[in-house]
Amino acid sequence: MTLEETYQMMRPKLDKLMPDGEIRYKAELAYEINQLKKERNAIILGHNYMEPALFHSIPDFVGDSLALSRKAAETDQDIIVFCGVEFMAETAKILSPDKTVLLPAEKAGCSLAESITAEDVRQLKERFPGVPVVTYVNTYADVKAECDICCTSGNAVKVVESLQSDVIIFLPDEYLAKNVARETGKKIIIPSRTGETEPQDYQMIGWHGKCEVHEKFTVEDIEQVRKQFPDVLILAHPECSPEVVEASDFSASTTAMMNYVQETNAPHYLLLTECSMGDNIMAANPDKEMLRLCSVRCPHMNQITLEDTLAALQKTQYVIEVPEEIRVKAARSVQRMIEIG
User: Fold this and answer.
1) Residue 229 belongs to a domain with what CATH number?
2) What backbone torsions phi and psi does residue 198 show, to the nearest 5 degrees?
3) pTM over 0.85
4) Does the pLDDT value for residue 78 go beyond 80?
5) What is the rounded CA–CA span in Å between residue 305 and residue 50?
6) CA distance 225 to 163
7) What's 42's DSSP letter?
């Protein structure tokens, strides 16, 4: 694809989001990246939360973090460039240990992943002996290594039910845990850090982690939008609070939300999730009317740019490494989840 063809490919999807001059500049970067990835036998993965100019230009695959890691594991490229955040790139390394995995930023963290440590998990297992541990895939490798099985926002209920246990530890997202508990009919507790006596009648043990983006949405936001647009279809990510999820029309993973918009014909759509994903869905569905509640941009995802992706490929910089002992243990948890589907 030539530079002009790259620009012509990007323009229809971006012309409502940015000026033409910026699209041309982004197209030049995208063209150079696409040339270089062929030379270096690299594959580029783009998470749903990437900014639109990147999302709609350079990735070989786009989607949620686990689906992207699985795609990368199936390819024969030498280099994986993961346009996402650090725990996602770690998951790609867990599943593809023989490949070089690059993250196009020196530090792209996650409030959820940073809300819990491997030592926290070990202490919980001592406090609740014999209770199986489910860990959201939005965690670092050493945390995954301490759990029994991982889950995504899309298969969390299925994973919990597969364990057939009277009590489950579900980490680290408090809101996702509460949404799963409501859907599975389990009573959940969030244990204190001080080791105070807990109630005895519970079936799920959560944690106090939250996504700094999704926790900002409120029921009041939904009520105000419905007053102005009574026929709006509201989609909420399950990392939103249970009250927000209950007040919405649909709640599921990022990929499921994208598919839902493509397959339905509501007059208006409102997505309660990271704002770049809203832009990406808008770009992919120009015939559908998307409402903008606010611009809640993930500051960590925002670290990933076309400029830094180019630099990562040029310099082979910000290589992701996972110690083999941790990788092997984490891989078991991830593979158990994959087997469930």
Assistant:
1) 3.40.50.10800
2) -95, 155
3) yes
4) yes
5) 8
6) 39
7) E
